[in-house]
Design goal:
- By secondary structure, this protein is α+β, with helices and mostly antiparallel strands.
- It has 15 helices and twelve strands.
Length: about 400
Amino acid sequence: MKFFNEFREGLHISWDAVRAHKLRSTLATLGIVIGIVTVTLMAAAIEGLNNAFMQNISALGADVFYVQRNSWVNSSENNWLRSQRRRPIQRAEAEALADQLTLAQAVAPVAYDGEPVRYGLRKADNVEIIGTSDEYLQTSGIVVAGGRFLTRADAEGGRPICVIGSQVSSNLFHGDLPVGNRIKIANQSFEVVGVLEQQGTMMGWSLDNRVIVPLPEFLKDLWSRPSIEIHVKARPGVDLTEAREELRQTMRHIRHLPPDQPDDFAINQQEQLVEMFHRMTAGIALVGVFITSLSLFVGGIGIMNIMFVSVAERTREIGVRKAIGAKRRSILLQFLVEAACICLMGGAIGLSIAWSLTFAVRHVMPVSMSWGIAIIAILVSLFTGLVSGFLPAWRAARMNPVDALRNE
């Protein structure tokens, strides 16, 4: 209770001192304002990038493995050239995996191509054509909005059918019902049997500007020797590390690799991209913290100088307070509170500026201002004030009351 009374008294005296020197207090906060704006904008940008990245990358599926020739990470030029010398992944290997894996829920061979798509006189360019099987519906997480997806009979070939993305549907049919109509892909006619729900973008690439066809039709009508990859979705509840190792060992067995020979394929996973992205953002954050620390250090030095001036101006006041019984901790607390108040003012101003800038640019780049960032900014301001004001406050608390009263 006594400490609370001393704190309340110190807060009252400090606030009076800040109000009595408005211009000086305002100028003292400039360094803190710059530092808080920097740290807040950096944190908002990193959090916004994290949110946007996780939203985009979620389309890959955390429990889906991608068997490909090259790895998503450590893809230097030498590694890429080495991966191009590997044996292509074959459709038969996907079928063997589907028969032998015990921890997999779905296995889908996937091939890609890019072709213009036409319906009558209308044309859609840069459309991603995907040749796959019926199990792609499970491995990709897509949802059919109208019609149906490929069936097992479709995946085994015999009918030139397709499922189109929402962007292709709007570009070619302008709101009309696409199901039952025929479109042309590379001058080959395909019947539309389904339309996918809108998915948005991933890494700037539209997930809705695509057409899915059975893999046999893809190989027959579009590209006979594509680069095939295999998507494997783990069963619910299984350990992903165990599922990945089973996939790796099974793939080595299918490819007849001896124990002393390295893998001639790569198993990619969403987690790899997440780890790589977090390493990148950690580096950006480290640079941002260094810049922010410089700003706050300069601001803290300014606060310290102002507080030394304030102590020198109020030496007689300190002597009077000590003469009537004020303890050292009361004097120390008074000037610490004053420094903290000045820094908190700077933090509030910096936070309001950063919030305004974040609101202004959120339509241009992904930024996110959360309550956590605001609380961190206020705590950083408070900490800077306490550290900057400690030496002046300690000097004031250690003053001899007789010497202080003699000061003119």
